[in-house]
Amino acid sequence: MPASLLGGTRYGRVWGLAAICLAGIGLGAALVFISLPTVLMVFLVVAGVVGSVHFSVAQAVESLSLRLLAGVGSWAGRAGLAVLAICGYAASVGLGVLLLLLLVAATSPPAVGWLRPSAWEWSLRGGPSDLGSLSDEELCREWQRSFEAVRDSKDGEDLQAAVEARRRCLDELERRKPDAFAQWLESMPTAAADPSVYYLGAGDREPPEPE
Question: What residue ranges of the chain have pLDDT lower than 50?
């Protein structure tokens, strides 16, 4: 697989689409092989637990808001559906679901990134050549990836490339949506913090043209 595909956002999209398709099949199996009351109970229990944990963690770093509640609901819903999909596969193929889960986990972007250290990739390509062409979601992912590159740097050259990529991401984040950038900084984010909670909810304004 080409390095640009493996290390970039394209691979993440392909993997995500495949995961959604697999989840849909698993949900269908759950509805066929598991009774509806059990399906509802599993979903509510998992969503409730994950939502409660996510709410507790999120409230420790930011104040209560509609954005926070939307994030909690999103995580809770996805967790409930994911567990239901796993239960559907387990009910239909038994222990074969373990092999499927192993395959999904082994091919996930984080696992692939671990096999191909992010610092090496960033030192090789210096991050995307045109950050302005990325969507807000992709830019936020690049910012997080730059932290991983700094953390995993093996020598001064790798570290310098990762720090430069991180600086470019930070400049683009500030240029693109200054208000969201200011709100993010006011939340006292950690070095690894994900700014997407502010940027993806900051409207659909086009970023200003660079001077």
Answer: 1-8, 117-126, 202-211
Contact 123, 13 (CB under 8 A): no
The CA-atom distances, in angstroms, between 116 and each of 3, 89, 174 are 9, 30, 29
The CB density around residue 11, as the number of other CB atoms within 10 Å, is 18
Radius of gyration of the chain (CA): 20
Determine how many CB atoms are found less than 10 A away from the CB of residue 89. Answer: 23
Distance (Å, rounded) from C-alpha 69 to C-alpha 72? 5
**Residues in Cβ contact with 48 at an 8 Å cutoff, skipping those fewer than 6 apart:** 76
Long-range CB contact pairs, 189-193, < 8 A, 24+: 189/61, 191/147, 192/144, 192/147, 193/61
Q: What is the mean pLDDT of the chain?
A: 79
* Residues with Cβ within 8 Å of residue 52, at least 6 apart in sequence: none
